Amino acid sequence: MSLKETINIEKLPGHVAIIMDGNGRWAKEQGKDRLFGHLHGVESVRDIVEGAAELGIKNLTLYAFSTENWDRPEYEVIGLMELLVDTIRKEVPTLNKNNIRLHVIGAINMLPENAQRELSEAINETAHNTGLNLIMALSYSSRWEIVNATQLIAADVLNGKLSIANITQDIFKEYLTTRLFPDPELLIRTSGEYRISNFLLYQSAYAELYFTDVLWPDFRRENFYEALINYQQRERRFGKTGDQIKNEQII
Ligand code: FPP
Questions:
Q1: Is the dihedral of CA 44, 46, 52, 58 positive or negative?
Q2: Does the C-beta of 25 come closer than 6 Å to ligand 1?
Q3: Three-class SS of residue 167?
Q4: pLDDT given at position 242
Q5: For residue 24, what is the domain's CATH number?
Q6: Which atom of ligand 1 is nearest to the CA of 215?
Q7: Is 152 a domain residue?
């Protein structure tokens, strides 16, 4: 049986989030510049997105550029932005072919104007697709998102749209950039780093975490399948006991 056939399609995580890490180290291993690593990282993005869509996963979030990444050397930031614009422009037909809808979360107004324009065109051109939601986290960080949500909530309280007593977890979720999507059930990080790095901190409260030593440019759908199989072997308790979960499964 192939690795793919081992996956239980009935028990796929509804939302997978990935911290794509290790492009720089991969490039260094080849004696190349960091941008070379990012360029090859795009191949992994393609393979994982197609693999996820083919399996029938509904939501996939990729951490492509963090708020903190703006502090990287200027040439790398510019190179990443060019790669982003170039990739989006080229990938729209493939997204449509695979029924994939593009979304973006993050402080998009920080991105260069041409990147914002390309993104908004790609979002519009894929808006009719009903398969995988591909959510690119760009200029994103959880602390930014939570502060942003707090500002929006405070404004709505001030203008009378919301009362303080009505700020529940369900209402709070509506002010997050991820309001359209369920919480991630599986969070993957590549490259042997064991950190969450300011990514979907609120939403990942009960996500299963999966870490692999594979560097992102080497990460392919077989590695993705391994993560899904590992996820499916876990008992998810959401704060309850193992016996409670087993009884719920019998009922
Ligand atoms: C982390 O590796 C990767 C990034 C900060 C950028 C991720 C970007 C891509 C995968 C390129 C494709 C994305 C799009 C949307 C075009 P790192 O640079 O932190 O690696 P290191 O930890 O080894 O230095």
A1: positive
A2: yes
A3: coil
A4: 77
A5: 3.40.1180.10
A6: 23
A7: no
Residue of the CA atom closest to atom 12 of ligand 1: 42
Please check whether residue 156 lies inside any domain of the structure. Answer: no
Domain that holds residue 54: 10-141+184-233
Quick one: which atom of ligand 1 is closest to the CA of 76?
A: 18
What are the per-10-residue average pLDDT scores of the chain (251 residues)?
A: 95 98 98 97 98 98 96 95 92 97 97 95 98 97 98 98 98 98 98 98 98 98 98 84 76 59
Protein residue with its CA nearest to atom 15 in ligand 1: 84
Say yes or no: CB of residue 87 within 6 Å of ligand 1: yes
Ligand 1 touching residue 24 (CB < 6 A): yes
Q: Is residue 172 part of a domain?
A: no
Specify the 3-state DSSP secondary structure of 61.
strand
The verdict on residue 110 lying in a domain is yes
Q: Taking a C-beta distance cutoff of 8 angstroms, is the pair 121, 95 a contact? A: no
Residue from 18, 19, 20, 23 to probe ligand 1 pocket by mutation (most atoms less than 8 Å from CB)? 23
Inter-axis angle of helices 74-97 and 34-55, nearest 10: 20
Instruction: Determine the distance separating the centroid of ligand 1 and the alpha carbon of 131, expressed in angstroms.
Output: 26
Q: Round to whole Å and give the CA distance between 54 and 161.
A: 42
Q: How far is CA 118 from CA 81, 90, 93, 168, in A?
A: 11, 11, 14, 36
How many domains does the chain contain in total?
1
